[in-house]
From TrEMBL:
Keyword Magnesium: yes
Leader sequence segment: none
Record-given protein name: 5-formyltetrahydrofolate cyclo-ligase
Pfam family, one: 5-FTHF_cyc-lig
Length: 184
């Protein structure tokens, strides 16, 4: 089985596990993320606008926004790195690609911490996303400019023992789940 087929098989199983966890979620997972982010008050942060069955970082992002700049990703085009536009809890939003909402007015900055959505992860920091490579390209660029902390945010049910990874896949520095914080 080639690498793309392996990734597709892992994604299918991980999407099912994520959906099952999402259906049971009562909204408390953001508390662990908030406690982690409390140690980085004021550091420029990027979160994300959850789509489909992604775990919701918005409460933790709103708390962080009271202490420093928070942004969300904006897709600039296929095979291009993401840009991050300033987000505020009650700010005006518009529709972005793939159904993720983005700020109405672009105000871009580079974050030093990126909360990364994912489909599957390993305890060693491996991450499988949707397959577009957006976060891999983006993290490579940010890390090439300065230290950037990549925090995966996911349900514990999305953990897998191994992932079919490529040399261009960026690893996570930490994973925060609905039940634990995993330091890589």
């Amino acid at each position: 089985m080639d690498l793309n087929a392996q990734k597709a098989a892992v994604r299918k199983a991980a999407f099912a596990a994520r959906k099952a966890a999402f259906d049971l979620d009562r909204g408390g997972a953001s508390g662990l993320l908030s406690s982690v982010l409390a140690g980085y008050r004021g550091v420029p942060l990027a979160g994300y606008m959850p789509i489909r069955s992604e775990i919701d970082p918005l409460p933790a992002m709103a708390e962080a926004a009271a202490h420093g700049p928070v942004s969300v990703p904006v897709i600039m085009g296929e095979a291009r790195p993401l840009m991050f536009s300033r987000w505020t809890p009650n700010g005006a939003l518009r529709e972005g690609p793939f159904g993720a909402r983005v700020p109405e007015i672009d105000d871009f900055f580079d974050p030093e911490i990126v909360i990364v959505p994912l489909v599957a992860f390993t305890r060693a920091g491996g991450r499988l996303g949707y397959g577009g490579g957006f976060y891999d390209r983006t993290l490579a660029g940010l890390r090439g400019a300065r230290a950037t902390l990549a925090i995966g945010f996911a349900y514990g049910a999305q953990e897998v023992a191994t992932l079919p990874l490529e040399p261009t896949d960026q690893t996570l520095d930490m994973i925060v789940t609905d039940t634990e914080v995993i330091e890589v």
